[in-house]
């Protein structure tokens, strides 16, 4: 599937939809789709990262993330299009599903 860089109004619309469907914690920071996930402990945070990594690799889409103990900060952008695309929102939805499974 080919993705394209979304226009600002498309990003706002997709962000509103994502937040309506999920936890309302997603935002645009530094031009990237961003969220901080908080888990009960390091084991759950690392398990989440592992599941996300396996899925992301299959999608050839790799998040920027930072982990300290039970917190995983995610930033998504589609490097191929130099901005945010639907590929980022698709991965965000999958991450939400994986986080809720823990």
UniProtKB/TrEMBL annotation:
<dbReference type="InterPro" id="IPR001533">
    <property type="entry name" value="Pterin_deHydtase"/>
</dbReference>
<keyword id="KW-0456">Lyase</keyword>
<dbReference type="GO" id="GO:0008124">
    <property type="term" value="F:4-alpha-hydroxytetrahydrobiopterin dehydratase activity"/>
</dbReference>
<protein>
    <recommendedName>
        <fullName>Putative pterin-4-alpha-carbinolamine dehydratase</fullName>
        <ecNumber>4.2.1.96</ecNumber>
    </recommendedName>
</protein>
<dbReference type="Pfam" id="PF01329">
    <property type="entry name" value="Pterin_4a"/>
</dbReference>
<dbReference type="GO" id="GO:0006729">
    <property type="term" value="P:tetrahydrobiopterin biosynthetic process"/>
</dbReference>
<dbReference type="InterPro" id="IPR036428">
    <property type="entry name" value="PCD_sf"/>
</dbReference>
<comment type="similarity">
    <text>Belongs to the pterin-4-alpha-carbinolamine dehydratase family.</text>
</comment>
